[in-house]
Amino acid sequence: MSTLGLDLGKRRIGIAVFDLPGMGARPLTTLVRVSWPCDIQRIRTIVEDRQARRIVVGLPLNMNGSEGPAAREARNFAALLSQELGLPVELHDERLTSLEAESRLKHSSMGRKSRKLVVDQIAAALILESWLAAHGNDDTV
Q1: How far apart are the C-alpha atoms of 134 and 139, rounded to whole Å?
Q2: Which end of the chain has the smaller Cβ count within 10 Å, N or C?
Q3: pTM of the model
Q4: What would the pLDDT profile of 8-23 be if each residue is shown by its tens digit?
């Protein structure tokens, strides 16, 4: 059983997984967005493969805590995802996760194009790690 973390972007969805207590969240994959139905179907496949029982979606709040269009998009996507997959989907503040992910990759030998794909996965892992810190990271999550 696992928990998935999603960093929802306009062009890509970064996905991370937590499935081994004590191991933390780890980057899994990046999906290039196609359409809501297609994106949800590809996430469904990952949920089934990983036997996920919960999904945590990053909520992109403004720095002052208010919600803008991206936060509303994340809320809508999370509600649809929960409805379609029949799983609990929680939202978690993701402020500055992409910047932190980019910072972690800044000095890597990875090419710019590869970093673009990996940064979304790392941001998803940071979202999931933050959620786990707030909710516990044992096999009950």
Answers
A1: 15
A2: N
A3: 0.86
A4: 999 999 999 998 776 7
For the chain, domains (ranges, CATH) are: 2-135 (3.30.420.140)
Q: Are 12 and 30 in contact (CB under 8 A)?
A: yes
64-114 pLDDT per residue, tens: 888 999 999 999 999 999 999 999 999 999 876 666 666 666 666 666 666
Tell me 139's DSSP state. T
Identity of the amino acid at 83: Q
Can you list the alpha helix ranges (DSSP code H) found in the chain? 36-50, 69-85, 97-105, 112-135
Residue labelled with tokens 């929960």: 82
CA angle in degrees (0–180, nearest 5) for 6-118-73: 30
The Cα 131–Cα 116 span in angstroms is: 23
Chain centroid offset of residue 84 CA? 17
